[in-house]
Amino acid sequence: MPDPASKLVTLTSSPSEFEAAAIAAALSDQGIPARVSGGTIAGFRAEVPGEAQVLVFEHDLDRARNTLRAVRADSVDIDWDDVNLGESEPATETATSPPGPVIRKLVIGLAIAMVVAAVVYEANRRYEQWLADKVFFEPG
Question: Which of 43, 34, 28, 30 is nearest to 11 (CA)?
Answer without folding.
Answer: 34
